[in-house]
Predict the 3D structure of the following.
Amino acid sequence: MTHVDYSAQIQTVAEADHPRYYRLIKAFQQLTGCAVLVNTSFNVRGEPIVCTPEDAYRCFMWTEMDYLVLGDFLLDKLDQKPLVNNVGWQTEFELD
């Protein structure tokens, strides 16, 4: 992914500094042959950047994302109860 001026901010990940993320990149490389992941901000245009698991879940449920990873959990949208409304992003929900 590049900026509008075709620049990019390339970052490396050292296993000693971020072992879990390093293992994710290595597993992705084994599956795809590509050791590059795109890391971008997590938000929807006009909304603040996601800061909490609750923010992440609401954003996930109100967008076209199929999956959400929260720590050790992988959420499939098809397995979630639909949220009833999106008034001010204050909807109650359950992670089950």
